[in-house]
Write a structure and sequence with these properties.
Layout (H helix, E strand, L loop, with lengths): L2 H19 L28 E6 L12 E2 L1 E3 L4 H7 L8 E9 L1 E2 L5 E2 L2 E2 L8 E7 L81 H6 L1 E2 L9 E2 L5 E2 L29 H4 L27 H5 L66 E7 L5 H19 L7 E7 L3 E5 L7 H9 L10 H12 L12 E8 L7 H9 L2 E8 L15 H5 L8 E4 L9 H8 L15 E8 L6 H15 L10 E7 L3 E5 L7 H9 L10 H11 L9 E8 L8 H9 L3 E7 L4 H7 L4 H4 E4 L9 H13 L5
Parallel strand pairs: 5-11, 12-13, 12-15, 15-16, 16-17, 18-19, 18-21, 21-22, 22-23
Antiparallel strand pairs: 1-4, 2-3, 3-8, 4-8, 6-7, 9-10, 13-14, 19-20
Keywords: Disulfide bond, Glycoprotein, Repeat, Secreted, Signal
Protein name: Cochlin
Pfam family, one: LCCL
């Protein structure tokens, strides 16, 4: 009798528990929708600070460009960056992308079948991680991007090869980790004051200049119509030094028993307490940059652009200090307005101690160079050879005749990490240098020359350390045998920053020892040029002192210090400006603003970059010639004073006129660059004039606006067209192409052969 009720109760309880264990579909967690992207999708073209995407298969074969390692520049392909970082394979998969502030430099490496490229600096970065959604974070289910104009199709808009081509849609969903805005949106125009040539003034922490000015003012975002929609940013992070490389086997040599081995502890000669030396600062490696997502703001506020920017209540036109996080409206920089004056922002090292008092000797005025000697302090060199090295440096300091109107000399000792023994400004006479060199104590460690070159490039040649205007920067590397890390990347960045690298190799590897070298042909990969002028092999430590005179003779031959010339200080640039009736007065001022924004990125002087300008209609007018204005302020004022002409459009005749009036007077050591800006089809032929200037060595860029003819833009531009020809739908979007043009000019310059 009791069995039936007990069975009923048992099944009832079972139903209750099963219903709790299996909730209905309404309570189930919604599945994360992951949007698909193409292989060429770039992080900078997507507006969200953190998002998840799915990459297709076979992206590696597309060879879409990637810049950086671990932390990538936002112009990199998301999918290929994920493959390079090992987050996904070539079969594709889900990737979480997190944006952060720009950094410098982005180091190129080879990993997982993808070669990432180096980039000195960029305005925005991102990292990739495995596409497993984080708990409590809601990622956007769909994204948005818009197609852009191409220079290859006159009627149908097509995406630029360097931008994403995927069609995406908008959603308002954002990551829950995005903080709300804490400051009101403001309109801020921030510009930099003029600085000397790259080899003259290099601020600490900036390893390469050619994108520094543009990226410090502009941050990329993906909802723009133009090629490079940008947002000002006031933060940048220095890049990491490369990881230490296993030094591998060390070569045996005569007298090896007298040389200290890496495992042998230092003797009392190296461990005794030394007095504190202010200039001897141990180099430390900076940490990874932290994430800096932008708060969610409206599309209008983010991408607002107006011809007349609102005036802030604060009318102070003095130096403006950027906050750590800056959210601004996107506007072109108006360099001749008080609030946009590029010479107002004080980036100098004011308040620093002045150079030492003027000594009795002014130095060798025929050898005005700033020299950094990298001396080998590794344990492999031994105590005796370290003393020989110090004697050599003392000899060089006496032969070169140090003085404030001649050469200035500093020394960095390297081992595992570099240490500044003394800077350029610390001693201003050869007499004072000799006892300072004698007091240098060996630091020990490996022979990490690459790490030392990174350090010199980023920190040594600065105003604070005594870097002067008008003096080429020279680095002389002394190395026992061979380096224990790679030097190629650090040397490339140094060369692109205007540093002339010499290598003095003592007892270099012979044929039987070359298999022990970490990086083959390390001398040719490091020096300024591979023609033999910048390398000085010494067969024996006992012969080193005899190399002092030949080394000084080469270092003082400033005409052959060719690496002092960079993409920013070695050009003759001619602007050929359309002044026809279709442009109009207001748009003509916008064109002049574009010309000024490009100009202000270069180092202007008679010995550096020179600027000229021609305006044309049916006729042509030389507004100003090369060398007529030799400071940046004078050139910008001359651009501002150009008056609108109005008339027809004869672009071909204008190109011929620019060749005759400007490029015929160009200096032989200058790169000749022509930038043609037009808004319509020419009434005359442009092919023959363009071909003539191409054959004369002129690099031509064409900028077409509104009704410009695509075929004519391509005839004018130097090959390849995609790097030299640009089209923009309206005048107000011209400013977006400034960083692209600067980047391309510098990329071409730095790609020249070094033989």
């Amino acid at each position: 009798m009791l069995r039936a009720p007990l069975a009923t109760i048992f099944f009832g309880l079972l139903l209750v528990f099963s219903s709790k264990a299996k909730p209905n579909g309404k309570d189930k967690k919604a599945k994360q929708v992951v949007p698909d992207i193409e292989c060429d999708a770039r992080a900078g073209k997507i507006s969200f600070p953190e998002f998840i995407v799915r990459c297709p298969s076979s992206c590696r074969e597309t060879k879409e460009k990637v810049y950086g390692t671990v932390v990538f520049a936002s112009i990199s392909s998301i999918c290929n960056a994920a493959i390079h970082n090992g987050v996904i394979t070539n079969a594709g998969g889900k990737v979480i992308v997190k944006k952060m502030a720009g950094q410098e430099p982005y180091k190129g490496t080879f990993a997982n079948g993808i070669r990432s490229l180096s980039l000195p600096k960029w305005r925005e970065s991102f990292t990739v991680s495995v596409g497993k959604p984080k708990k409590g974070v809601i990622y956007p289910a769909t994204l948005e991007s818009q197609k852009e104009h191409s220079t290859t199709s006159p009627t149908t808009p097509a995406p630029d090869p360097t931008t994403t081509t995927s069609e995406l849609t908008t959603t308002t969903t954002t990551t829950t980790t995005t903080p709300p805005p804490t400051t009101p949106t403001t309109t801020t125009t921030t510009t930099a004051r003029p600085r000397a040539a790259v080899h003259k003034v290099r601020d600490a922490g900036n390893s390469h200049p050619y994108l520094a000015a543009a990226s410090a003012r502009q941050t990329q975002n993906g909802q723009a119509k133009g090629l490079h929609q940008v947002v000002r940013s006031g933060s940048a992070f220095a890049g990491r030094f490369p990881p230490r490389i296993n030094p591998g086997a060390r070569r045996p040599e005569a007298g090896a028993n007298n040389r200290r081995q890496p495992s042998v502890p230092a003797t009392s000669a190296f461990s005794r307490v030394q007095p504190v030396q202010p200039e001897r600062n141990q180099h430390t490696i900076p940490t990874n940059p932290a994430s800096d997502p932008r708060p969610e703001i409206s599309e209008y506020e983010r991408w607002y652009f107006g011809q007349y920017p609102p005036q802030p209540a604060d009318t102070d036109s003095g130096p403006k200090h950027l906050p750590e996080t800056l959210h601004t409206r996107v506007e072109p920089v108006e360099v001749w307005k008080p609030e946009g004056n590029p010479f107002d922002l004080d980036l100098s090292d004011r308040g620093k101690d002045p150079l030492p008092r003027v000594p009795d000797t002014q130095g060798n005025t025929n050898c005005k160079v700033d020299i950094a000697f990298l001396m080998d302090g590794s344990w492999s060199i031994g105590k005796r050879r370290f003393k020989i090295q110090k004697d050599f440096l003392s000899e060089v300091s006496q032969v070169i005749n140090v003085g404030i109107n001649g050469p200035m000399m500093g020394i960095i000792q390297y081992g595992d990490d570099p240490v500044t023994e003394f800077s350029l400004r610390q001693f201003s006479s050869s007499k004072d240098l000799k006892p300072a060199i004698d007091k240098i104590i060996q630091k020990g460690g490996l022979s990490n020359v690459g790490t030392a070159l990174f350090y010199v490039n980023k920190h040594f040649f600065s105003d604070a350390n005594g870097n002067r205007g008008g003096a080429p920067n020279v680095v002389v590397v002394l190395v026992d045998g061979w380096p224990t890390d790679k030097v190629e990347e650090a040397s490339r960045l140094a060369r692109e920053s205007g540093i002339n690298i010499f290598f003095v190799t003592i007892e270099g590897p012979d044929d039987s020892e070359k298999h022990n070298v970490v990086e083959a042909n390390f001398v040719d990969k490091a020096v300024c040029r591979t023609n033999g002028f910048f390398s000085l092999p010494v067969t024996s430590w006992f012969a080193l002192r005899k190399a002092a005179q030949p080394l000084v003779k080469r270092v003082c031959d400033t005409d052959r210090l060719v690496c002092s010339k960079t993409c920013l200080n070695a050009n003759d640039i001619a602007f050929v400006i359309d002044g026809s009736s279709s442009v109009g007065t207001g748009n003509f001022r916008t064109v002049l603003q574009f010309v000024a924004n490009v100009t202000r990125e270069f180092e202007i002087s008679d010995t550096d970059t020179r600027i000229g300008a021609v305006q044309y209609t049916y006729e042509q007018r030389l507004e100003f010639a090369f060398g007529q204005h030799n400071t940046k302020a004078d050139v910008l004022n001359a651009i501002r004073r150009i008056n609108y002409w109005s008339g027809g459009t004869s672009t071909g005749a204008a190109i011929t006129y620019a060749a005759e009036k400007l490029f015929s007077k160009s200096k032989p050591n200058k790169r000749k660059i022509m930038i043609v800006i037009t808004d319509g089809r020419s009434y005359d032929d442009v092919r023959a004039p363009a071909l003539a200037v191409h054959h004369s060595g002129v690099i031509a860029y064409s900028i077409g606006i509104a009704w410009a003819a695509q075929d004519e833009l391509e005839y004018i531009a130097t090959d390849p067209d995609k790097d030299h020809s640009f089209f923009v739908d309206e005048f107000d979007n011209l400013y977006k192409y400034v960083p692209k043009i600067i980047h391309n000019i510098c990329h071409e310059f730095n790609s020249q052969p070094r033989n």
